[in-house]
Amino acid sequence: MAAGLQVFGQPASTDVARVLTCLFEKDLEFELVRIDTFKREHKLPEFIKLRDPNGQVTFKHGDKIIVDSRAICRYICTQFPEGNKTLYGTGSLERASIEQWLQAEAQNFSPPSSALVFHLAFAPHLNIPQDHAVIAENEKKLQQVLNVYDEILSKNEYLAGDEFTLADLSHLPNSHYIVSSERGRKLFTGRRNVARWYHDISSRETWKQVVKCIRVMA
Questions:
Q1: 69 and 11 both lie in a single domain
Q2: Does 151 share its domain with 132?
Q3: Rounded Cα–Cα distance for residues 89 and 97 (Å)
Q4: Which domain holds residue 183?
Q5: pLDDT tens digits for 96-147?
Q6: CB-based contact 131:119 (threshold 8 Å)
Q7: Dmax (CA) of the chain
């Protein structure tokens, strides 16, 4: 059992959700400290302001502090090999493949999907007008990415092979918010292999736990 693990952030944040999923996959005990950066009167702890002024997600393990969600997931998998042992690969070749997909997610999938998350999922709740030109532009970009995914997933069960890994996990938060809208859902359901893959990864008990956190603490 790991001691002294703390996650600071808003559970509805995609970065926080990514870290929580990893922790649940590793079956680790941790403390979730809610930080609502949308409230101006909310004061961030000093150690967070020094490293991450936006306070989207901060992970603390003893004296170790990490602020990037993907770096946090890598750290968790490296430091705590128990739990889901295949999450970050069991060999150098597997890990290299996972790393390639983590880079692809961060550089190609995340930018357009993050824009769609904001305009399709968050803007309506924040009473912010949706920018339909931005939505259309990023839909096109994400369609191109998902077309490549669909081809890969026609050969593999998951992105990096036949095991669920960080490569798949890292896509869950943004995908969750996109499919929550009818317009966004079609991007996934319109591609057979992507639809099968998303249904599979979003049905994992660990992700269901994260969704509960989002709903309870939203």
A1: yes
A2: yes
A3: 9
A4: 92-204
A5: 999 999 999 999 999 999 999 999 998 888 888 889 999 999 999 999 999 9
A6: yes
A7: 51
Phi (first) and psi of residue 143, to 5 degrees? -60, -40
Residue 102: how many other CB atoms lie within 10 Å: 22
pLDDT of residue 34: 86
If asked whether residues 78 and 26 sit together in one domain, one would say yes
- 0.70 surpassed by pTM: yes
Within 13 Å and on the Cβ side, how many CA atoms surround 31?
A: 9
pLDDT, tens digit, 9 for 90 and up, residues 20-60: 999 999 999 999 998 865 444 445 555 444 444 445 689 99
* 3-class secondary-structure state, position 37: coil
Sign of CA dihedral 190, 155, 163, 161: negative
Same domain? For 58 and 112 the reply is no
What CATH number corresponds to the domain at position 12? 3.40.30.10
How confident is the model at residue 50, as a pLDDT?
Answer: 45
CB under 8 Å to 53, separation ≥6 — which residues? 44
Q: Is the pLDDT of residue 151 over 70?
A: yes
**CA separation for the pair 108, 20 (Å, rounded):** 23
52/99 same-domain check = no
CATH number at residue 166: 1.20.1050.10
